[in-house]
């Protein structure tokens, strides 16, 4: 049985949350304040989340630069929610920093999923479409469309 997309995203998000919270705990020991460690750990977690969820959750090749760029922009929205909530909870509500980070991760999950599902990745590619892209040979120009040998050599005439 195949898991629903939101559950698969929750699992990859869980992995990313472990990276985010663990990275934050380590970075907070080495860097001043709360905001910088929160942002850096989130970006590391976003890279893990993209790689893990591109194919398994959304059915796309993770090497697609356009989708990776959209993912990063959408992750910026999640970063704003995550780091902003972490900083606000720590400063205004006097929540311990690690607890504030956990709350920030939870709030950012919903924002991230919606942005990734509907904007960065859109609908997953069908299995048939993916198989056609993967199995199709690279098109080669027909002999009639090939350039003559002397033109292919950087515009120099063929030796005689």
Question: What can you tell me about this protein's structure?
Answer:
This protein is mainly α and 160 residues long. The protein has six helices and no strands. α1 runs antiparallel to α2 (35-56). The model has no long low-confidence stretch (mean pLDDT 80).
Q: How much helix is in the residues?
A: over 70%
Instruction: Decide which structural class fits the backbone.
Output: mainly alpha
Work out the radius of gyration: 23 Å
User: Outline, from the CA principal axes?
Assistant: elongated
Report mean pLDDT, rounded to a whole number.
Answer: 80
Alpha plus pi helix count: 6
- Per DSSP E runs of 2 or more residues, the count of β-strands stands at 0
Uncertain runs are none
Q: Outline the biggest β-sheet.
A: none
Topology:
Elements lengths: L4 H26 L4 H22 L8 H28 L4 H24 L6 H9 L13 H4 L8
Helix pairs in contact: 1-2, 1-4, 2-3, 3-4
């Amino acid at each position: 049985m195949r898991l629903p997309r939101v559950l698969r995203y929750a699992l990859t998000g869980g992995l990313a949350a472990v990276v985010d919270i663990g990275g934050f705990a380590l970075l907070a020991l080495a860097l001043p304040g709360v905001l910088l460690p929160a942002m850096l750990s989130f970006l590391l977690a976003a890279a893990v989340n993209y790689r893990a969820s591109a194919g398994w959750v959304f059915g796309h090749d993770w090497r697609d630069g356009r989708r990776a760029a959209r993912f990063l922009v959408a992750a910026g929205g999640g970063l704003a929610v995550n780091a902003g909530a972490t900083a606000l909870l720590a400063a205004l509500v006097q929540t311990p920093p690690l607890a504030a980070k956990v709350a920030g991760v939870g709030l950012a999950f919903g924002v991230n999923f919606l942005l990734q599902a509907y904007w960065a990745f859109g609908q997953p590619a069908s299995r048939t479409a993916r198989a056609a892209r993967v199995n199709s040979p690279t098109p080669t120009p027909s002999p009639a469309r090939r350039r003559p040998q002397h033109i292919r050599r950087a515009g120099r005439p063929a030796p005689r």
